Amino acid sequence: MARRGAREVTKEPGPKREDTHERDRRARATAPPARQAAWIRDDGARTEWADAATTTATTTTKGRGARPLKTTVTPAPGERRPSLPPEVATEIRNAADAATALHKEHLVEKAEAAFGAYERNRFQDALRAIKPVADEAPRVAAVRELAGLAAYRIGRWREAARHLQAFDELSDATEHLPILMDIQRALQRPKKVAELWAELRHRSPDADVLAEGRIVAAASLAETGDLNGAISLLASAGASKAVRNPSTRHVRQWYVLADLYERAGDLPRAREYFERVHRVDPQAYDVRERLRALGAGRGRSGGSRRSRPAAGGSRTRARPTR
């Protein structure tokens, strides 16, 4: 909610997928006091905004009202990597009620392997391991969630959408709606992005998730050529306000606004917002290069400058990220 939902202005058929390691390099959301890995979607065709949404594989308990359970990405040296949550293992066994006891344990082992692979950023391995589990236990929210996130991280948009839509039906969690928006953006479906954005606002998510969705919605508008609408969507919601203790979402939205203003030809405002980002974190994305370009008078009036985040964890992406 992503990509790659601060995102730098960067996001099957159609788009060419970018190498996973390159997407990870390009998508970290950056703001003190802590950095978090960013989810990102990027097909390599155009640069989009990197979105920080989740930092780990997430699982949920069964049923409507379930909430994602976060897990540690990198254990301390010698520390045992977290295992599949026992309640998820129980759900898988119960869902495969026609299977033998031995086969049920095989499915649990597959899910465990997928969970661990995702935490180690081995998204293809995670998807390969979780797919047979999703086929035999399609009503387990945690399984569909992991399958959707893994597919998203390797650019398999339709498969990711199918699993994440199922996850949404199985739980009332909203945190992956920006990712679903980003997938529809990758598939060049701006009307569907707008529909999901309206749904997200109606469901009253927390501030971070709402900011992710707003950035993806703005990116979609910008892609259709409506730069003024994209700027208005962010600025009218308070994203342009200066705050004393900015969070990661503030920094990302400032970066997006700066990029939009530069593309719209308003270089003074672009410089203002890039400077805000730089004051909070000089290493954020490519903010130093952007400021140098503007200071040297090389900002392009009304042009689209290909911007790339510095170093990244998702949308790898943030994604999320075109």
List the keywords:
disordered C terminus, elongated, disordered N terminus, mainly alpha, Serine Threonine Protein Phosphatase 5, Tetratricopeptide repeat, 2 domains, two-stranded antiparallel ribbon, 322 residues
Question: What does this entry look like structurally?
Answer:
With 322 residues, the protein is mostly helical. It folds into two domains: 1-54 and 175-322, Serine Threonine Protein Phosphatase 5, Tetratricopeptide repeat; 56-173, Serine Threonine Protein Phosphatase 5, Tetratricopeptide repeat (Alpha Horseshoe), CATH 1.25.40. The chain has 13 helices and two strands, in the order H-E-E-H-H-H-H-H-H-H-H-H-H-H-H. The protein has helices spanning 20-25, 86-95, 101-119, 123-136, 141-153, 157-170, 177-186, 190-202, 207-223, 227-235, 248-264, 267-280, 287-295; strands at residues 58-60, 68-70. It has a two-stranded antiparallel ribbon with strand order 1-2. Helix 4 (123-136) runs antiparallel to helix 5 (141-153), helix 7 (177-186) runs parallel beside helix 9 and helix 12 (267-280) packs antiparallel against helix 13. Residues 1-81 and 296-322 have low confidence and may be disordered.
Query: Which structural category do the helix and sheet elements fall into?
Result: mainly alpha
CATH superfamily of the largest domain: Tetratricopeptide repeat domain
Shape: elongated
Oligomer: single chain
**How would you sum up the major sheet?**
2 strands, antiparallel
Kindly report how far apart the N and C termini lie.
Answer: 14 Å
Q: Kindly state the mean pLDDT as a whole number?
A: 74
What is the chain-wise order of helices and strands? Answer: HEEHHHHHHHHHHHH
Helix content percent band: 40-55%
CATH architecture of the largest domain: Alpha Horseshoe
Regions with pLDDT < 50 over 5+ consecutive residues? 1-81, 296-322
CATH structural class of the largest domain: Mainly Alpha
Summed up, the helix count is 13
> Using only CA atoms, what is the Rg?
19 Å
| Residues in β-strands, percent | under 5%
Across the major sheet, the strand order is 1-2
Count the E strands: 2
- At the fold tier of CATH, the topology name of the largest domain is Serine Threonine Protein Phosphatase 5, Tetratricopeptide repeat
Domain count, please report it. 2
